[in-house]
Amino acid sequence: MIVMLVSFDLSATPEAVGRSNPSQTVEKYRREVPGLVLKIWLKSRDAPATGGVYVWESEQAMRDYLDAGGLDFAAKRFGVEPTIRTFTATGVADGLAFAQLLSQERAAV
User: Fold this and answer.
1) What is the pairing mode between strands 2-9 and 49-56?
2) Cβ contact 98:55 at 8 Å
3) CA dist 97 to 25, 32, 47, 78, 109, Å?
4) What are the pLDDT digits (tens) for 3-35?
5) Can you give the CATH number for the domain in which 32 is found?
6) Which among 104, 108, 98 has a CA at the least distance from the CA of 36?
């Protein structure tokens, strides 16, 4: 599993923090993003920043999303380019579905 952490530094445009509205896009992610296991929307508690955590079935699914301009809408909405960091998931503390997917991936290796 691949975890992608996306953040938008909104210090130059702090009013943009209020432009994040997960309720407007949650169904889109459920139906239209192949390979996406989970998305969590984030809003900083102590800085003008927002972002998201994306959990992908594979690195290819993540690359396909990025290559198709998956973050372009958010970058345009916030007026800044995102910072993207990627990680390999090596464990999980809870979440049965996530744990099952991770074990299936390990079994395939």
Assistant:
1) antiparallel
2) yes
3) 22, 20, 32, 32, 19
4) 999 999 988 876 666 666 666 677 777 888 999
5) 3.30.70.100
6) 98
